[in-house]
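Appendix B. Extra example for self-study. Work through it before the problem class; the solution is given directly after the inputs so you can check yourself.
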Amino acid sequence: MERQLTNLLLVLICTTNIHWVVGCSSDASVTITTSIPNPLIEQLPIDVAIYYNDSMSQYVHSEDLGSYGNHTIDLRSQISVFNRIFNAMFKSVKPVDSIDSAEGRGVDAILAPSIEKFQFSIPEQTRKDFYEVWIQYRFDLYGVDGSLIHSWPVTAYGKANRLNYGGMQNEKSPALREATKWALRDAAASVSFSFVRQDLVREWFRQRAES
Amino acid sequence: MAIRTHIAFVLIATYWLAGCVNTTIQEVREANTSLGSTESIVILSRKHKTSGETENDFVSCVSGKTSSGEDGLSVMSERAFMDELFPWFEPRTAPINMKDLTDVISRPLISEKIRAVGVRYLVWVEGTTQRSEESGALQCTVVSGGIPACFGFLSWESGSDYEASIWDINRGINVGKVSSEASGTSIVPALVVPIPFIARVQNQACISLAEQLKTFIGA
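Solution. Structure tokens for the complete assembly:
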């Protein structure tokens, strides 16, 4: 009986070792719940309406990586990340249902962020130690009359080192989640810096100040 | 007598299992340092590169060891510092030289926050631990009676190479650098049961770097 138990234990250890060494395809489904710290930035003296289209507010990325499994990343919490950074960037922020509905709401402009591209990679694909996430956003700034003032891209990047998760198969979901959180954090940082660095936005600011 | 024999066996086994590690420490001082009782340091890793990024656990290890002991320094965690100063010390926005740092801390919002959190020195850690010169082979099989057994011999060299640049926020200068290199050979002989003798080079590099930082900043 004791011998059988020992053999069973040894077989279990070997099976586990083979699983670690060989690895296997595994699916991953992660829901991002994140926030950003209170941003330390100077507030711009403008009132801005924010319009998120449905593809932005309901964004869920699904991708089949073949032998590496199906991957689903739920990015809907990005709205709270952007709301937080916009509240720090502008004097006041009002959510609106459409670009047209901002007129008469007492705002100076309408800002409409949208996702253009979402990509990720896992260590099995790249032969590197990192889970990586890239998000390409587009920010459209409209006047209250609906005319486009400026449109510019903002690229966000996040990564997570698999070695920080023990380097085993069950690292995938937490590492992918961490990489996406860093990408959202990077997006918030990038938009806070990029907004005032856009020449056309600065020109619009100058014209507002003169009028 | 038997207990003594067992203790001696455990000590020898521990020494073997830990493997041998050689460590080299270097220091370059460019200015004097002193840390007030209300001041602290923060140990940060560079995250803007796509490869060769310093491991999180190494930074945590150095932070922990630098703050421990009678001569321990007050150390703010990397994440807490990044959160307090968000978005100025993010992977893509962190200052990469003294001029960038001077520009960042010249902003009243930032300098006020740094004063509030009490951080005097930024310690930027760069480097990694890597395996090299792997050799040998290990094969596992199920022998008669259904018992798994491994045979063979594996060995590899591990090398840790880390450098810490120390910036004085108050004076806006680089006060010096400390580096820690550690190397060692790990082996896994297997005659039915594999027995690993692992050289813990990263841990040794962490301990050496932390001790040197305490001496350098606390001096």
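Self-check: DSSP finds six helices and six strands in chain B. If your reasoning did not lead you there, revisit section 3.
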